[in-house]
Every structure is written in C-alpha cells, then in structure tokens.
Design goal:
By secondary structure, this protein is α+β, with helices and mostly antiparallel strands. It has 4 domains: 236 residues, PPM-type phosphatase domain (Phosphatase 2c, domain 1); 102 residues, Phosphorylase Kinase, domain 1 (2-Layer Sandwich), CATH 3.30.200.20; 177 residues, Transferase(Phosphotransferase), domain 1 (Orthogonal Bundle), CATH 1.10.510; 25 residues. Helices cover 33% and strands 22% of the residues. It contains 17 helices and 22 strands. The N and C termini lie far apart (100 Å). The relative contact order is 0.08.
Length: 574
C-alpha cells in the first residue's frame, strides 16, 4: 500500500450567462509533513446574486481558509482547526458588511455559501454552510453528503438560512467518513446541481474518469444547455491512495530506521555527548545524564531498552515524545535539546533540570504550607495549559513526572502517554485502558473514555490533595472502577480529616476538581487555580445554610412548638 495520500482532481468554473463569476474554488495539496498532519483541502464558495461584492466574499472565504488552516498548530484536530478558521473568516466578512454601505442590508453585503472537504490520512472531513453541495459517487450513483441551508417560501422563491458573513454567529455542519482508493467526490454550486439530476451528473463523471477536468467542464456545459442562468463551478476529487494506519504516521517513520543504542557507561561518547551517569533504567527505557561537548551543557538522553525493539506501538509513542516537546513552548515543560548533529541511534535529548521529582519533594516535605502547595500546583497548571492550548492531554500526570528544582520551579516531563487530538486519524483504536499511572488517572478513563483536559484536571486535583495530606482523595478505589454504578459510589474523603486548619473552601475547590463525573468538574483549569486562592463570592452565605439543612430535627421541633402555641392561643380565645 502507498505510504501517502494521493488524489486526482478535475475543476472547472464559468460565469455562465452572468457578467461576473461570483463563484470561487480551490484545492491545496501540500508536500512533506503537512500532507500528513494537515492533509489535502478542497473548497468551493458561491456568492449571493443580490450582492455586488459577494465575489469578494467567495474569494476571501476560500483563499483565507487555505492560508489560515495550514497555519494552525499541527497538534490541532482537523475539526478544531477548520472550525476556528471558518469562524474567524465569518467574523471578518460580517465586519466588512457592517463597515460598508450595506450594513443595513445583509443581502447586499459580503456573503457567500461555502463547502470545504479536508482529506487527511484515511478520513474525509466535511464542513458546510449554505447551498453549495458535496456528493460522493458510490456504486455509480451520487449520494448527497451535505444539506442545503435554504428555506423555500414558494415554488420559485427561497432564502438562505445559513451563509458565511450573514451574522456574527456561524453554525457549521460537520461530518467525517472513512475513505479508500477509488472513492470519488463532487463539489458543485447551485448553477449546476439545480439544473442536472444526480443520475446525469454521475453518468458524466463515470464516462470521463480518465480526464476529470473534462468531466467538470462537461457538467457545466450540460447545466447551461438545461437553462442554467447562474455561475457554474464543479470540482471532482478521486482518491488514488491512502496510507495504512501504521504507515500514515510520520512520527514512526522519522526515527524507525535508526538502530538501538547499547547500554552506555560513564565516559562513553555518543554523537557528541559524553555520558556522565545513568539516571534511570527499566525494561522500557534507559535514561542518562550527559554533557554536550560543543557547548558544555548538561542534557538528558532517553533511549528505548533493547526489549522494546519489536514493539511498534511503544516506538511510535517514543517518537511522539520528541515531536510533542518541539511544539510546546512553556517554562514549565521540559525542553528538547536542539543540536544540528544527526543522531546515529534512536534516542531523545532534553535539557537537564537540576532538582528532584515531586515524589521525592513530598517525602522531604511531608507537611508543606498551603501557600507552598499553591505555588507548586499553579506551576503544574501552567504547564498543563500549554498542552491543552495545542489540543494535547498529558495523561500521565503523577509526582514522578514533575521535577522541582532548587528554586522551587516546576517542570513537567515524560510525554509518552500524551494524547494528541490532531494525530488521532492514525490511532488504531485499541487503547481501552489509561496510559498513565492508575492512582492518578481519572475515573472515566477506566470506563474506556479517551482522556481529556478534564482528566488532567482530575490528576492535578489528586496531586494537590496528596501534597496537603499525603493521602489520595478516594484511596485506592479509582482504578477498580468498571461501571457507572461504581463511579457513583466513590466517596470523597475531605482534606480536613487530615488537616483541620485548612480552610473549608480550599477543600471544596479540590473536591470539585476530582469529582468522579468529568462534566461536573471546573469548566476551565484556570478556575480551579483561582479557587485555590479565593473563596466563592457567596461563601459566607453558603457557610450557614437554612436550619432545615443544618439540623432538620431542631427545625421540625421548632415548627411543632409554634403550632402548639398557636393551638393553645386559639383555645384560649375560644
């Protein structure tokens, strides 16, 4: 099977009977790594006929998508990247109308319909706004994949219900579907599909498979012959090859050909590094402290153990660590050591942090002050947010993967379990258990759900709790979760059981961060960090709930006494 995605395309656009072509279309197939991380983009736009500037909107929508989509972070998913770009373009078009002479007549403003298809790996991602269309040729029949956002008021009268630039908010139809060699897609504007039925279009494409440009032109000419009085644009995309799940991962192929390094001893040299000592060794990896002989900078070299040489899943995760580290820019995340030298073995080089793990720090500081804990947790939170901004989830947050230097500065390490949403087209779907440490993993991951930033929040909450108490909020029960019922039965142990002097509102903040149900946790990690320092605005009112909640027995005793007094008073009056 081919190692890359490849297509054949045919395109044609014509003004038809109109003086101006308000349609715009394009296709961009990048080379190299962007073909893997971003894929091939196809877009078609149709300006509304009531506007004299809608051709500008069409061109801006298509050209802007190509420019901005391929500039989004490689770690972002196709869906997230495309929707962010489309909403930004919509805001720009809407602003253009609001600042023009057409601000009170949106039907004459910078408005267009738009359909976008992104082919990446073995998946087609479809985005749609308006009444341009996306079809798939299947078994010699056209299947319409998009839905027209048009309201028919009468037989010959209709209006768009969705379009780019028509309003501040943009509702985007999205769907994804698997693709395979031979799949053929058709994108059209209404000048074509309103005048040709699906059978006719399918026949024209099938008869001209050897020349897709000719097929697109034939579609336009046939629509003109059928009386089309609109602009005409057609794009035909045939998938020629798709990468296999394993072959599609550029990460795996970057380093897969390098040999494994032997176990190293102090004083040995490797690619310009001099080994100082071994830091860690296990059946999965060997970690060494070394010095770069060119710069005299100390670095950490991590390399897979010999036992892992035949495990492609581990090797891909290992390769992904370096890819991830190169894309995160945070003072609280381990930085890769950049060298112009080509590696001769499979390893990673990162900058050395002088300090200890958070696990060792907790052993050395069994009863830290609340303010010290806040400072540590806030730094970990900053590192996590650097991951989350790039649609990455650390998934293995535990004290062993947090370094604390002599100045109290925190650095996150070990990205082998990190989930990168933007690379999930290549996931084989076999992961059903958490990759990270069980005692710090969120309960939902034990139910087969993918880790999210809310899962990282749970792990951070557990670490906060452990820093303050030396205990775990649910003891050892979280890894035993196998059902929703067990999830509901988890019981939080208040921090105040172990530290009576801790403010109750701090305990409440931690409890919310580690709630078993992910959707009930903080909607933003920053809110959790804020609440560790600030009680809720209504805290004093919440501190003294109504008597019926604080002491139901006393409440009903009081009610009974009042009723008795009222009864006696009534009898006395009688």
């Amino acid at each position: 099977m081919a190692r890359s995605l490849s297509i054949t395309a045919g395109q044609y656009s014509d003004a038809g009977t109109k003086p101006v072509n308000q349609d715009f279309h394009g296709l961009l197939a990048p080379k190299g790594h962007q073909l893997v991380t971003k894929g091939i983009a196809v877009a078609i736009a149709d300006g509304i006929s009531s506007s004299d500037v809608s051709q500008i909107a069409s061109e801006s929508a298509v050209a802007g998508f190509f420019s901005d989509y391929f500039s989004t972070p490689e770690s972002w998913s196709v869906k997230h990247s495309a929707q962010r770009v489309l909403r930004a373009t919509n805001a720009w078009l809407y602003a253009q109308t609001r600042q023009s002479q057409y601000r009170y007549d949106r039907d004459r403003g910078y408005v267009c319909t738009l359909s976008v298809m992104v082919l990446r790996s073995a998946t087609a991602h479809l985005f749609h706004i308006g009444d341009t269309r996306i079809y798939r040729l299947h078994s010699n029949q056209l299947e319409q994949l998009s839905t027209d956002h048009r309201l028919w008021l009468a037989r010959d009268e209709s209006c768009l219900t969705r379009a780019m630039g028509i309003g501040e908010q943009l509702d985007i139809d999205y769907q994804s579907l698997p693709i395979q060699p031979g799949d053929t897609f058709l994108l059209t504007t209404d000048g074509i599909h309103e005048h040709l039925d699906e059978r006719t279009m399918a026949d024209i494409i099938r008869e001209s498979m050897d020349d897709l440009d000719a097929a697109a032109r034939r579609l336009a000419m046939a629509a003109l012959e059928q009386g089309s009085d609109d602009n005409l644009t057609a794009q035909i995309i045939r998938v020629d090859s798709v990468p296999s799940m394993r072959e599609s991962s550029e990460l795996f192929h970057e380093l897969a050909g390098l040999p494994f390094a032997p176990e190293l001893q102090p004083g040995q040299r490797l690619d310009g590094y001099r080994i100082l000592r071994q830091i860690h060794a296990s059946s999965r990896s060997h970690v060494y402290l070394a010095v770069d002989e060119e710069t005299e900078i100390r670095v950490v070299l991590k390399m897979p153990s010999i036992e892992q040489r035949h495990d492609p899943v581990y090797l891909e995760q290992f390769s992904a660590e370096q890819w991830i580290a190169r894309r995160i820019n945070s003072s609280h995340v381990a930085r890769p050591f950049r060298s112009d030298r080509q590696p001769s073995f499979l390893y990673q080089a990162t900058e050395f942090v002088e300090g200890c793990t958070l696990r060792q720090w907790m052993l050395d500081n069994p009863a830290p002050a609340l303010e010290t804990v806040r400072n540590l947790v806030e730094q970990i939170g900053k590192g996590l947010r650097a991951f989350h901004r790039l649609e990455m989830v650390h998934q293995d947050l535990k004290p062993e993967n947090v370094l604390v230097d002599t100045h109290g500065t925190v650095t996150l390490i070990d990205f082998g379990a990190t989930r990168v949403v933007g690379l999930e087209d290549y996931d084989n779907g076999e992961q059903t258990v958490p990759r990270g440490a069980a005692l710090y993993s969120a309960p939902e991951t034990f139910l087969g759900e993918p880790g999210s930033w809310l899962s990282d929040q749970f792990s951070l909450g557990v670490i906060t709790y452990q820093l303050l108490t030396g205990q775990l909020p649910y003891g050892p029960d979280v890894p035993k979760i196998h059902s929703r019922n067990q999830l509901r039965n988890l019981k939080y142990q208040p921090v105040q059981q172990f530290r009576e002097n801790l403010p109750r509102w701090v305990d409440c903040a931690i409890e919310k961060a580690v709630l078993p149900q992910a959707h009930r946790r903080y909607p933003a990690l920053s809110e959790y960090l804020y609440n560790l320092r600030h009680p809720p605005a209504d805290w004093h009112r919440r501190q003294r709930p109504p008597l019926i909640e604080r002491n139901p027995v006393a409440f009903w005793q009081g009610v009974s006494a009042l009723l008795l007094v009222a009864l006696l008073a009534a009898l006395g009056l009688g």
